[in-house]
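note to self: the first set is below, dont mix up w the second
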Amino acid sequence: MDIGSQYRITAQALFILVFLLGFSNVISASDQRLKPIVNGALELQINSYTDEQIAIFNRRFASLESIFGNTQTFLTVVERTESITDVASSVTCELLPDACSTDEILNLISDLEPFSDENGGYRSIEVLSDNLIKQVIFLDEADTFQNERSGLVFRAFFKQFLSRQVRSAKPIPKWWTDGQEEYLTKTLVASMGLGEPFGEFHKRITSEIAGRVIDQVPLDVTEANYIDVSISGIMQLVHDYGMKAVFIDFYEQYSSTSSWDKAFEQIFAIDKSKFATSLELATRGGLDLSLLREPNDLVDSLEEPWRLDELSARRLFNLAPFQLMASLPHTVIEGCSAFHQFMMESHEFGDFNGDGYQDLIFTLNENVTTTLENCSFPMRVFAVYGAEGSKTPEVVVVDNNQLGARDTVVADINNDGADDLLVAGANHRSEGYPANSPSISGINLYLGSEAGLVKTTIENQSELNLGDMTAEFTTYGDIDGDQVPEFFLFGTGAGHSWPKPLLIDCDETCIARHPAGFDAATYPKYTSISVYNGALVDLDQDNDLDILMNIEVEPNAIVDEPFVSKRYAHAAFYQTGGQFDTTSPVEVDMGFRLDENTIVPIPEDPETGRIVDTNAAHYWESEAVDLLGDDEVEFVTLENNSFHITNPRYLISIYSRDSVTEKFTLSQYQPEDTGAVHDQNFQFRDLDGDSRLDIVSTLNPGSSYDDGIALHRNLNPGWSLSTKKFSSFMSENNCNRIYTPDLDADGNLDVILTCPRADALEIYYGKNMLLADRDNDSIPDINDTYPLISIGSLIDTDSDGAPNDCDQVCINIGMSADTDDDGDGVSDSNDSLPLDPNNDTDDDGIANNVDAYPENSLYSKDSDSDGMPDAWETKYGLDPNDASDASSDQDNDGVTALDEFLAGTIPSGSLDIDGNAQYDALTDGLLLLRGMFGLDGDALITGTVASDAAYTTSVDIESRIATLGDLADIDGNGEIDALTDGLLTLRYLFGLEGDTLINGVVASDATRTSADTIETHLKALMPAL
């Protein structure tokens, strides 16, 4: 067996990333000392990691191995008392038992240098087996500090990748490899929390370079004098062109070009010197590298999924570096102490100032205090107001004094074109609170205006105290049928045993009242029955909204007559004739997805006495929406069991009307379980222009920061799940929430992050840099004929936003049919293949079927069908309507006009002046030169006419020269001159080329000045003979 043909092996002292080979002698394979690189590196850390974290890191690193050359990397630590060759032999046989004892591999192992105080660090071996690069890193156990050793491991991985790219004939500058190695290592190590945070890395390099600026040292990155300057060059390139271009695309270009310099210029469209100069100028001007920090995770940055065609959560986001929008300090109340803990309670999207840009509001709960302090820490309401793309959105504190801001709802309830906001508290005063303690929960109304949200007084016509009440949920709907929505909630407070329905309506004033039909005397007085959520939905299809409740009837509930059959159930108050019957709710048999939960709940603390239920279910959010674009409303909820058990699940549940019973039931197709904790909101957007609504939900990042944004793509039937995360940035900055508004109204989701600090809440903004696509039909506005009208399911062959055909429905929405369906520049009326964009091969705007010269953009018409274009015939004095002139020979050079055209030569002139079918400097060249000097008669021809010439008299020769006309103006300056044009011709006929041809004989006002253009012109005067 030829081992060399199956394995390619390289050893690299000083680096650690490769697979091993050997036999087992000192250390047995059963010791399993060879570990996957991530596991081995984490074991070198002082900190401990959970199994979940280790699995996440391994998954991410496996993606990197695939990106950087289809590798598989292992690590082993070598003690100073061990022989590195013995260790290498042992682990080699673990990995390649059939090949570890070959001479070639044994020789490779024998080349590994032993570790010593003078020569520590790491060693590596690399093997190519079955198209997989296996790498083993040997780490000196005595080297450096424990946590730093894990960094060395990953540095070796990237060093080995870079070394594989080098071609000996095309050296790579040291600044480039040093900067890339450092940047990649720091990126990966920071993403795993194993070293310097990535943002701090950028700040440190900025600071170090600032010191060099002060010291007035040379800062040319190409000189590679300082590692920090090299790193800054890589940071700038990554910011300007992306990681994929810098670390992946560059090396593909480098492998196929003549040099590193050439590859650099082709990938980045700038030569290295100009780049170095611009970087140095920016550096000396105070360049802040922290503003260039890559926002995406490493794998996303290297793969650039936003360039793919298939819709996914990762494709939706290509962010500019996150920028700090605001830092909001803690609330301090004199006399009250508290443990500050920023908790984001609720958020909504809307246009609160009516400017056409989407805004974001969120509520902030920042204090945890004891019941004995008699303190009431208010929550705060913030708004992020969107703006056009060139402006940064604005963060505004809407209210510093909202009590218990648990839930929010948005709608335009006063019909003024700006969205309004209701914030409801859900804090419950426990028995430990003194009787005279202030309120800790209430509701507030904020009306939209040109200036944004404004807190508004509510006229209270209800039984509830709006300033001292709780509400578990809020929603909206047009309860009274006046085409304007109202806010709705269930509220309770002191003296109220069971939550009461409450609506808020705004006409001249804003009024809080109970819905029509509510009767306090007959309203139920249940205890131990919780109303978790609800919605306003037309359950019985009588064209009015009913009140749907999501409830739990606890085992100790006091109910005169049980009205539901399950502990967790749906119930409703139905509206009839504009009145609600609120005497007793009626069970609605809709079911929950968690009714079939098979995951056994972890019991709560036995001291609470609470009995958990496997099928516990309630929902945080709900909305009635037409998901399929068929004018049929679906009811969508964010279902979970987080209030009931300690291992909760979160599911988006969809209810649709049964075609037989016309009742809402769980749909056959449901979005996939993300396995994560969902935030209390979701968005419905048609993200792929198919007229069906997709669902975007943000996720609680969790302790591992492996969750972020979930996209449930509507496939109809069915759904597909994909996710996107910003783990590196969010973990580094301790961010606890992610929001996805479209702040600049360009059709792309932007990102807002909230990140608690010890004394403040920081808010970061990531602008989406994808091309604007306001109708979300995957056609960028710059290419979209109708940028505000989605192409939907209409056929659009050339993806220009205009449909091939447009029926009346299409016309009614503002479109018309495309006049060039394939976008080839040929109108459909002139295009024999109107759906074939390749039907105009020469891109001259004339379809191949009507183009006499479909592969020549200069010509398209041949009126007499003689094979010569009309324009060419007219230019050279031929008749475009006379086919017989194709056989003519105006210049009597023995070549017909048609053959001259096909050869690319001139029909009216040739440098074969004497007509002997040869081009000769000593005859034709001298004849032309003498003619240009003005000689005629015998002075022209004596001694310069070939013995076999066809033209021998001076009259004939003069006629031949005259036939050339302006074509004899070789340098194109408008004059025929013996000392320029004549000498150029003579030199060319002598066989001179390049600089030798043109030196000293091109006129100062010439239009043809290069050897290439001169040679091209002369060649055209020399048709094949």
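second set (the one i keep forgetting abt)
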Amino acid sequence: MNESSDSLYQTLLPGGSHWSMRVKAGSALRLTDVEGNANLGMLFYNPENLLERYNAPDTLKCQHTFRLTAGHCLYSDMGRIFCGIEQDTFGWHDTVCGTMNAGLAEQRFGALNYQQARNERHQNGYDSFLVELAKYGLGKRDMAACVNWFSKVTVDDEGNLALDARPKPTASITLRFAMDTLVIMHTCPHPLTESDSYPRAAVTVELLANTAPLPAHCLSQEENRGTTMIQTSSRLIKDAVYRAQVGAGDYWLHRIEAGQTLRIVDSEGNQAADTLFFNADDIGERYSMTDTLRGQKNVFLTAGTVLRSNDDRPMLEIVADTCGRHDTLGGACSTESNTVRYSLEKRHMHACRDSWMLAIAAHPQYGLSKQDITHNINFFMNVPVTAQGGLTFADGLSAPGKYVELVAKMNILVLISNCPQLNNPCNGYNPTPIEVAVWTTCATKHRESTMFTCVLIANRGAIAVRIIRTLKQMGVRAVAVYAEADRHSLHVRQADEAFCLGDGSVRETYLDQDKLFAIAKQCGAEAIHPGYGFLSENASFVERCRQQEVIFLGPTPQQMAAFGLKHSARQLAQDNQVPLLPGSGLLRDLEQALVSAREIGYPVMLKSTAGGGGIGMQRCDDAEILSEAFTRVKRLAGNNFADDGVFLEKFVADARHIEVQIFGDGEGNVIALGERDCSAQRRNQKVIEETPAPNLPQPIREALAQTAVRLGKAVNYRSAGTVEYVYDVSSEQFYFLEVNTRLQVEHGVTEMVYGVDIVSWMVQLGAGCLPPLSSLAVSAPQGHAIQVRLYAEDPAKQFQPCAGLLSHVSFPSAPADAELRIDSWIDSGSEVSPFYDPMLAKVIIHAANRHQALNALSQTLRNSSLYGIETNLDYLRHLLNQPAVREGKVITATLGCVTYQPATLDVIAPGTLTSIQDATGRRGYWHVGVPPSGPFDSRSFRLGNRLLGNDEQAAGLEITLRGPTLRFNQDCAIVISGATIDVRLDNQPLPMWQVCNVSAGQTLSLGQVDGEGCRSYLLLAGGIDCPEPTIAQR
């Protein structure tokens, strides 16, 4: 290959290869198609700000052209010029068809031809771009529009696209760069290639140094209105489950579910709805102009068009269109273009991109950023294209009331900017309102027309996620609230909308009723679901809901006053001849509490009258403990439930905690859904729950249900509730404990054995469309269900709550012959806040019988993994092997007698550069810029594991310079290998290169590394438990 005289650098890119380089401002690239049938795909980025990249709509609309050739410039999405086309002997280059992916390549060339090409290191364009992008820390979300040099995509007056494959050997193009630019390229086939073999054509790339002025813009403005396709809709606006008006200059951000229909209406006939579409479950997947246009081989969007993603998957389909044509080439206006087009006084008005950025900033829960703003659609805009490549603006297609309807093929996040178009020739800033509507099908067929369209969830964590799941199944818009500490929580990301409650304590966020009602009004919520805890049993909140004309999904204020406050519930139980434990009324002060305790007789339980979940409860064996606990329990109750009332109750030593799930319609009808055994408690906090209760005499089982129903009917109970009892094992007598006027944490086990959705019942009841309870009543439970509560707490430190980053979260699929349900708010990368209840998940198993359920739950926990902070996962595994649990003989005091020594190390001091390693390390990723790794002295590492009888892959600690100080929480055998290091166990020297036994509670100090080498190793029997990383090295 001979270099040109004006060339500073020259290289040959074989067909199917990829390459990248940084080009300085003023320099030029000359590209030459060696054989005449090349396709050179190219991406452009600002190397100083990689969020600035080539933008096809800006490039086309600013020059009123569909074609790129000499005289044209390539614009960035910041409105700046990357480069100009200085010279072009080819004549027409493609900027709308994108690049070929693996699926297209295999479909186009056949699996055999494409696989052969891959074997010879020829890849598809999409993967080639990804390999090059990875070198600069970029990925799929950063892949914007590309230009396909030497590929002529023709267009006729009907908008149909075709590839002109006539060869032009030695055709060349020269690009003169106006700014420093990162250029990424590949020489893979064009996506419209009709060949049945994988074509490979080389391209030469030359870097030219001499500067020259940029070419002038080509402003060809041939005008052709083209044809349109009109398709009306039979949907009635009164049947829409959601409606909104988007004001002039405003934005609309909304989630729609797969199968739902979105209608966008041009209210006054002169608007452009600049719209972005994202996969709501994977923001990196979004609407792609290139995939859509090449998929239908036409540049016009109208009825029948399938909008495709950058993964080349169908996102939405246009099913109705009274406008007839919509623009996907014209892009969106920026602040700069607003300033030029409109008067200086109006330059502050929002541009389309400004509105999108405002939406992104206001709704961080969706995880969007500027890099996600790529291709958009301008609904109701007419941007004709001619066969000569002309591109211009034309009006006359839209009119007041024109609309377009789209059916979602996946869960979609929609972002609309209702701002002027850059192509719009008007001289005044004149955006007008648009309307949006969503249709769906209500989950219930009974009185369907009364179902809510929007429900606000006044809670957080796992229960908020659980409620969102049901609302989505019912087609009801779910609105979440969140404190600043929960900004990235799963319930925020899964909700259709989410609103921030600000920083502060629980009282200042989730318990702030003023904020909640303001949000309910703002989002149009017709009902509020309180979940459990927080305001779920606060009668004053329910009354405020009534005053605000918002439906509270739960019992009435009067029922809460009767049942929700435990001391008054005792009186109601007594009036209905329900056995009661000795206890007190509501206590005014400590002095009254001490008097009542002496009358009842120690031990007693000091309990908050509001709330539940074990919060605000303490066993008091004498007056001293009661005196110390009184103020603290009142404070806990006030902080968590906005009610600090407390009372006393006699403590039963040999007790089981049994509860009955009830549901009432508020009209005197109440049913019972079996009982649950919640006896496995630690410090009054339930840990294991199951249904049916094991080893319970059938007469007792029936009496519990009958009593619960009787209590519910006494107050015409409405919605879900739970009647709790203490069951004295020795006397086989039960006593009324309390009624929880809310959904219980453990409701899931009941749902699984009875095949119901209690949350759905609550919503339907609130909307007035619940079928008669007699038709919902169930008989015998089917199988057995068990739940364990997974907490962020450290069993080695008195179960103190833990906060921090969960770097790895993994739950398995359901075991054979069992059904698994995980109610959780966490995933890998979740941040656990120290401000709220530390429950992470509820793991629920349903099987044919209790024995199978226990075995399946044990298997599930063994195969679950949480990493990053301490949790009670291993403690739960330990509990399931306890004889009392296996035999169903747990009482409330059982867990307090369980001995548990976690297989953990406490890091007293971290040392210098101590890391977890395994022998295999990481290999084979140099091609994407990731170096190999693993222990420096692999031989010493492996020998240490061999001395312990460990698997060769067992992880251990590599110590550099100076080692850590560690305290062992369980007996363990260890080996110290590698370079000589000062090792002491409880300040006594410890030998290297031999197995040493360490007892629980002992402290191992690893000091200075000296002698030959600079790496020492600590290997432990069984290795260190840590997750497999994405790229294989621990």
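remember for set 2: The longest strand covers residues 670-682.
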